[in-house]
């Protein structure tokens, strides 16, 4: 396997939501594979902020190929508590039960998307609140970066 290309986007603008269902954040990256059958390593390193006591943050990555409807790609956990079907995303939750927390999150996943050469693939970080309280990505507005990265790896 070899790396064919790396695409990276950076934002310093905070995204906040109180939604109990996954919504698109402002962290996204678009890659157009150079070869058929490639795998895509996605990486979303950033800081997340619970912005209140007992607020819970859930994160998923949604994929859209050639402009199609985006769908969550988190794998379903063996106990059915994580993954797209359980609305938990990649983590059970990121939470501070007795305090507000601002913590690093590094979501990485090796995706095997179905595509045709020439199709662009958009990966977007989606987040939701588990309690209706405000949750934020990146944690501080106009300070630390929110990074979205996609690496094409030849099969």
What does this molecule look like?
The protein has 155 residues and is mainly β. The chain contains no helices and 11 strands. The strands form 3 sheets. Strands 3, 5, 6, 7 and 9 form a 5-stranded antiparallel β-sheet that branches. Strands 1-11-4-8 form a 4-stranded antiparallel β-sheet, with no helix packed on it. The relative contact order is 0.41.
SSE blueprint:
Elements: E1 3-11, E2 15-17, E3 23-31, E4 39-49, E5 56-65, E6 71-72, E7 94-95, E8 102-111, E9 121-129, E10 135-137, E11 146-153
Antiparallel strand pairs: 1-11, 2-10, 3-9, 4-8, 4-11, 5-6, 5-7, 5-9
Shape descriptor: elongated
The SSE string, one letter per element, is EEEEEEEEEEE
Regions with little confidence, pLDDT below 50 for 5+ residues: none
Number of strands: 11
From the N-terminal CA to the C-terminal CA, the straight-line distance is 6 Å
Assembly state of the chains shown: single chain
Number of helices: 0
Strand percentage lies at over 45%
Average pLDDT taken over every residue: 88
* Helicity level: under 10%
**Structural class based on helices, strands and sheet pairing:** mainly beta
Biggest β-sheet: count, sense, barrel?
5 strands, antiparallel
Rg is 16 Å
């Amino acid at each position: 396997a070899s790396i064919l290309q790396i695409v990276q986007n950076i934002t310093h603008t905070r995204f906040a939501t109180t939604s109990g269902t996954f919504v698109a954040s402002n962290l996204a990256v678009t890659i157009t594979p150079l070869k058929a059958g490639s795998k895509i390593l996605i990486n979303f390193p950033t800081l997340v902020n619970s912005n209140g006591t007992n607020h819970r943050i859930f994160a998923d990555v949604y994929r859209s190929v050639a402009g199609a409807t985006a769908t969550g790609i988190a794998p379903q956990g063996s106990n059915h508590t994580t993954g797209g079907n359980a609305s938990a995303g990649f983590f059970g939750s990121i939470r501070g039960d007795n305090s507000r927390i601002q913590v690093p999150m590094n979501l990485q996943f090796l995706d095997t998307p179905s595509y045709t050469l020439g199709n662009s693939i958009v990966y977007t970080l989606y987040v939701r609140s588990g309690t209706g309280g405000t949750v934020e990505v990146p944690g501080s507005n106009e300070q630390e970066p929110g990074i979205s990265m996609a690496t094409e790896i030849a099969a």
